């Protein structure tokens, strides 16, 4: 017997478990501007939030995470299955690239801050 069955007297239900990384379509109507916007977008299933009884879905195109209870799953399609290399994270500061070893290094940090001038 499982601990869940001993405590509650019934076996656990696995109906709400989904395949990680599969294609899913969360309902995005609460976040749209007007009623003619799309009702759902193609996403990748990431998992379950620990504090909600919902699903966490990642939109590949906008790089946005949706948390929604109303999701349609396609559990035999995996958008990242044929990915050749991982995406590099976006950085907030540019990096200097040197093509010549003798070139002096360039600084990507801004100069000293100027005091704020009030305009009346």
Structure in a nutshell:
It contains one helix and five strands, in the order H-E-E-E-E-E. With 120 residues, it is mainly beta.
How are the elements arranged and paired?
Elements: H1 3-8, E1 23-26, E2 43-47, E3 55-59, E4 64-68, E5 71-74
Antiparallel strand pairs: 1-2, 1-5, 2-3, 3-4
Structural account:
The radius of gyration is 24 Å and the shape is globular. It starts with a helix and ends in a 46-residue tail after the last strand. The chain is mainly beta. The chain has a five-stranded antiparallel β-sheet with strand order 4-3-2-1-5, with no helix packed on it. It is built from one helix and five strands, in the order αβββββ. It has a domain at about 15-75: SH3 type barrels, CATH 2.30.30. Residues about 90-115 have low confidence and may be disordered.
CATH class placement of the domain at 15-74: Mainly Beta
**Largest beta-sheet details:** 5 strands, antiparallel
Q: Please, what is the average pLDDT?
A: 75
**CATH topology call of the domain at 15-74:** SH3 type barrels
Tell the overall outline: globular
Indicate the radius of gyration in whole angstroms.
24 Å
Structural class based on helices, strands and sheet pairing: mainly beta
* Element-by-element helix/strand order: HEEEEE
How many beta strands in the DSSP annotation?
Answer: 5
Give the low-pLDDT segments.
Answer: 91-114
Identify the strand order in the major beta sheet: 4-3-2-1-5
CATH-defined architecture of the domain at 15-74: Roll
The percent of residues in helical segments reads under 10%
Span between N and C termini?
A: 78 Å
% residues in beta strands: 15-25%
Count helical runs. 1
């Amino acid at each position: 017997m499982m601990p869940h069955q001993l405590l509650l007297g019934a076996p656990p239900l696995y109906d709400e478990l989904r395949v990680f990384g599969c294609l899913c379509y969360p309902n995005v109507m609460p976040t749209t501007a007007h009623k003619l916007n799309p009702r759902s977008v193609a996403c990748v299933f990431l998992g379950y939030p620990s504090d909600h009884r919902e699903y966490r879905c990642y939109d590949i195109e906008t790089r946005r995470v949706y948390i929604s209870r109303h999701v349609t799953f396609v559990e035999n399609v995996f958008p990242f299955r044929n990915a050749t290399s991982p995406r590099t994270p976006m950085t907030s500061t540019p990096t200097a690239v040197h093509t010549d070893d003798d070139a002096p290094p360039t600084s990507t940090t801004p100069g000293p801050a100027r005091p704020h001038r009030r305009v009346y």
